[in-house]
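ok here's DUF3820 family protein:
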Amino acid sequence: MDGPNEIDREDFRNLLIEIGKARMPFGKFGMKAYPPAGVPIIDLPIEYLTWFQERGFPKGRLGELMAQVCEIKGVGMDKVFDPIRAANGGRFKLQPTRRRNFDFE
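and the structure:
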């Protein structure tokens, strides 16, 4: 019999498929910064996911999926997403953060 935190293989597979399709619709990695659909949640930086974990994930299914991704990445299992990445052409390329230049002269 399964314990409360155990998930059967088929359910886990379906969860990974759903996670693989989810994209960040708003914020720093949303549609405006990364058109047309935002960054896949599997490729969000762990620091970003941890920020949400500390302050609260979004409501609804997106938040639930982000929490799962955070948990998986947090225990060092990011490689579980590699087949999804491979099927989608590789890891999503995040734009380098622009260095702000301040000229005080």
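+1. The CA atoms of residues 49 and 70 lie 6 Å apart.
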